[in-house]
Amino acid sequence: MDGIPDLIDEGKNGYLFESGNVHDLQEKLELVISDIHRAKEMGEYGYAFVRGKFATQKFFDAYREMVMEVTDSKTYTKKQ
Fold first, then answer.
1. Which residue from 2, 53, 59, 77 lies 20 to 30 Å from 30 (Cα-Cα)?
2. Is the pLDDT of residue 77 over 70?
């Protein structure tokens, strides 16, 4: 599959297509182009998905957790 399977919720924020299969890609593009309402919903869902998954605080928290695991540090406490 081409696309980024970890980021695509099939039919909700995009479509995956078979690598090298231009007909499959064409079908998926036609699905989006043929229904402007659906395309808008997919865009809104995709925006919310990215905002939720890649928010700055989430990155910071994940990075902090990784550093704590690597250094085995228990001295840092999260500020509220």
1. 53
2. no
Token pair 């001295």 is at which residue? Answer: 75
pLDDT tens for each residue of 44-55: 999 998 888 877
The radius of gyration of the chain's CA atoms, rounded to the nearest angstrom, is: 19
Chain position carrying tokens 């840092």: 76
The domain containing residue 61 runs over which residues? Answer: 1-80
Rounded to 5°, the CA angle 11-17-20 comes to: 170
Total domain count, the chain: 1
Please state whether the predicted TM-score (pTM) of the whole model is above 0.85.
no
Report which of 57, 44, 56 is spatially closest to residue 9, judged by C-alpha positions.
Answer: 44
Residue 75: the pLDDT is 58
Q: SS3 of 35, please?
A: coil
